[in-house]
Every structure is written in structure tokens, then in C-alpha cells.
Amino acid sequence: MPLWRQSITSQPENKWLKDRFRGPDFPGQLNGQVEKPQDTLPGTPNFFQGTMKSKIFSTLLLLFLCALIGGCGLLGKKPEKTAPELLVEGREAFENEKYRRALESFQRLRDWYPFSQHVTEATIRIADSHYALKEYAEAAIVYAEFERLHPNNAETPRAVFQLAMCHFERMDSVDRDQTAARNALYVFLRLQEDYPASPYAEKAREKIRACRESLAGAELYVARYYFRTKAFTAAQARLQTLINGYPETPQAKEGKILLEKIRQILEKEDKK
């Protein structure tokens, strides 16, 4: 027997402890006198089980309420329209010149049904709607996308023509930047080269003439400015570019007349 136990049990006044140091499990356990830990205290198994049950119940209740609220909202929401319905809706709006509404319908079709057989038509009609709204920059992007994705589609020549028209509609006067005219001319010429049998290639012919006249007019405008400021050498260079680059234009004829005037002026100066 350990000394500490002997010291306790040998004293008469501590006899009452002797009976308590008997336990079924191991020596020294107070037999039946030590209170069993309460199951609801933190750190006990039942405490964790009860807490987890409470949390799970709360979570399930919250999910149920969210589903109930969401379901009520869905009950009042109209079902989404099908791709054919959106296509017809867009066509009708476009025919009635409600271009913004048409654009929205075609855009929804492409967004909601990206793999629908109607997406190809919706794409070019999105571009047409932008063009009708005079949103030429946006229309040009979609027309170019259509040509890239559908090079062999029957609508592609028209898409290329419309792409050129987006630049054509943004052309400025001859005293302004001519980037739009150059871009339009480039696309019209490409249309004639890539789709020579298309009726749009023939329609492009008149537009090409207008683009070239605009570019020729810009050259003549600059040449006249140099002429007025007596920068004759610079004027001659511009006029030569005009005559050689755009010989069929009315501006080229005017350029020849102005070039002859400069030649006469320079001859007189040489004789002085």
C-alpha cells in the first residue's frame, strides 16, 4: 500500500475515507462518491452532439425559408421565351422600325440560346439594328464578327457591304480626317475581290467612286492651301499625288489646271 494511503487510513478520524477509496475500476477511485460530469457541459460528447444538432436544424430551416421565398418569386415570373419566339419578336419590331426593341430581342436570343440554330440570323440582325440606330461603330464590330464566323454564309456579302457602309456613313468633309473614307474604300474593294458575283459587289462600285472623290478632294484642298501660302513646291507634290492616284475624278482635272498655274508662276520667277 502506498505511504500516502497508509497515512490517511491509519488515522481514526479519517476512517470514513477508508470506505470511499474502493472502486470497481482502479484503486484509489472514490466509489460512487465522485459526481459524474454533466453531459451538457462544454467538452463532453453529448454537449457537442446537442450543439451540432442545433446548428444543423438552424441551417436546414434557413435553407427551407430561402427556397420558399425564391419559389414564391419564381411563381410570379414569366417563363423565358423560346429562341423562335425571340426571333419573331425581333423581326416584327425591326419591321415596325422599333430598332431598340428589336436589338434587345435579338441580343437575348444570342445570350440565352448560344447554341440555337437561330443565332446566326440573330447576329447579323443585331448588326442591322445598330446600323438602323446609327450606331455605326457597334454595327461594324458585329458585321466583322459575322464575316469572321460565317465566311460562307449567304448573308456574308451583305455583311461585308454593310461593314463598309459603317465607315462610309462616318466619312467627313474634305477638310477633315479621311480615315473613314480610306477604311470604306478598302472594304468595298475587298468585297469586289472576295465576292465578285454578288449583287453587293456591283452596289459597291458607286460607293468606291464616292470614296475616291473624297480622298481626291482632300488632296486638292491641301494643295490649294499650299498654293495660297505660296508653298509652290509642296503644292506641286500634292497635285501630283492627286493626278496620279485619282486620275478619273473631277478633282484631278482641277488639279491639272492648278498645277499649270504653278508652273507658269515658277517660270516667271526664274526669268527675273
Report on the architecture of this protein:
By secondary structure, the chain is mainly alpha-helical. It has a domain at 80-150: Serine Threonine Protein Phosphatase 5, Tetratricopeptide repeat (Alpha Horseshoe), CATH 1.25.40. It is built from twelve helices and no strands. α6 runs antiparallel to α7, α8 (156-168) packs antiparallel against α9 and α8 (156-168) packs parallel to α10. The N and C termini lie far apart (144 Å). Residues 3-10, 12-45 and 68-77 have low confidence and may be disordered.
CATH topology of the domain at 80-150: Serine Threonine Protein Phosphatase 5, Tetratricopeptide repeat
Question: What is the straight-line distance between the termini?
Answer: 144 Å
Mean pLDDT: 83
The total count of strands amounts to 0
Structural class: mainly alpha
Q: In percent terms, what proportion of residues is strand?
A: under 5%
Biggest sheet, in brief? none
Protein name: Beta-barrel assembly machine subunit BamD
Domain Outer membrane lipoprotein BamD-like: 80-266
InterPro entries: BamD (IPR017689), BamD-like (IPR039565), TPR-like_helical_dom_sf (IPR011990)
Transmembrane segments: 56-76
